[in-house]
Amino acid sequence: MKQLRWGLIGCGDISKKRVAPALRDLPNCDFVAVNRAQYHLAESFAEEFGARKWYKTWREILADDEIDAVYIATPVYLHCEQTVAAAQAGKHVLCEKPMAMNTAECDRMIDACADNNVKLGIAYYRHHYPVIARIKEILVSGEIGEVVFVQINAFEYFNPRPGQERYWFMKKEQAGGGPMFDFGCHRIEVLLNILGPVIYTRGFISNIAFEREVEDTATAFFSFESGPNGVLNVTHAAFESQDTLDIFGSEGSIHVQQLNSGCITLKTRDKERSENHPPHTNIHQPLIDNFTQALLENCEPAVGGDIGRVVNIIEEEIYRAGII
């Protein structure tokens, strides 16, 4: 089998739990090298996941001629610089979300990849969830009639202290924003995938429970070109975790109590049923597989820079209209 030769830039939690295992396990991937800022831990990381090489700096990994593509799993403020440099080095790029700090950076990334004839993907892995594909099928079938309203709640209690590894999420110049920017972007991509383009956005951004540079709670309101209205609520401050998706139609509704589980309840005027469409056990693996196959077959990945850019545009509109 033909393989794509990969380098991994950044070895944090996401890389350890999902990205590196996928690069190791997928038969179309050859996991060549890793870069880790904590260089004393790079060798053990490489050995654990089967990479043959390890580098101290990300520029060294870009200089490795054996590598075809890189997965960028670093804080968002580094995405643009690293993607542009990777493109200039002739490497294809699959970049973590959110794509960049702002739309201007997204444009630089897209242009650099186009100018150097390399492909760009963004890690919105929920695009590949079977439950999302099934929901789209139900909507097209007309079983719940015309979609009227959609709501997503994404609540994840998060309050790191200075000095902790993930405290950079509290720094606006590194993280870009709070929960709306960090994981709200995932839900925006889900909404775009299900309902299509947004024509109106309004946001409310606030700090309710914590004093920090970024918001701890936010709400975004949307109007979709296809007709329905939508609300996205995110927070770091609520004790109860939520990961819900509710779609209300003129003839029925769809309810997902936990998007990552894939269980849906469908209600219509005369019946109610449940379906189960769980994601892959490694939720990043279908994303990486799709990007790898796209490169091997010289076609476009399912989630390219264009989608990442649209999400960033919507994020900017939410923050521009919001109050902090």
Write the layout of secondary structure elements.
Elements: E1 4-9, H1 13-25, E2 29-35, H2 42-49, E3 53-55, H3 58-62, E4 69-72, H4 79-88, E5 92-95, H5 103-115, E6 120-122, H6 130-141, E7 147-155, H7 172-175, H8 179-182, H9 184-195, E8 198-206, E9 217-224, E10 229-235, E11 242-249, E12 252-256, E13 263-268, E14 272-276, H10 285-296, H11 305-321
Parallel strand pairs: 1-2, 1-4, 2-3, 4-5, 5-6, 7-10
Antiparallel strand pairs: 7-11, 8-9, 9-10, 11-12, 12-13, 13-14
Secondary structure category = alpha/beta
CATH homology-level superfamily of the largest domain: Dihydrodipicolinate Reductase, domain 2
Report the CATH topology name of the largest domain. Dihydrodipicolinate Reductase, domain 2
Tally the helices: 11
Secondary-structure element pattern, one letter each = EHEHEHEHEHEHEHHHEEEEEEEHH
Largest sheet: 8 strands, mixed
Shape: globular
Determine the strand fraction and express it as a percent band: 25-35%
**Order of neighbouring strands in the sheet with most strands:** 8-9-10-7-11-12-13-14
According to CATH, what is the class of the largest domain? Alpha Beta
**Rg from Cα:** 20 Å
What does this structure look like?
α6 runs parallel beside α9 (184-195). Helices cover 34% and strands 26% of the residues. It folds into two domains: 4-125 and 283-303, Rossmann fold (3-Layer(aba) Sandwich); 130-278, Dihydrodipicolinate Reductase, domain 2 (2-Layer Sandwich). The mean pLDDT is 96. It has eleven helices and 14 strands. It has 324 residues and is an alpha/beta fold. An eight-stranded mixed beta sheet has the order 8-9-10-7-11-12-13-14. It has a six-stranded parallel beta sheet with strand order 3-2-1-4-5-6, sandwiched between helices.
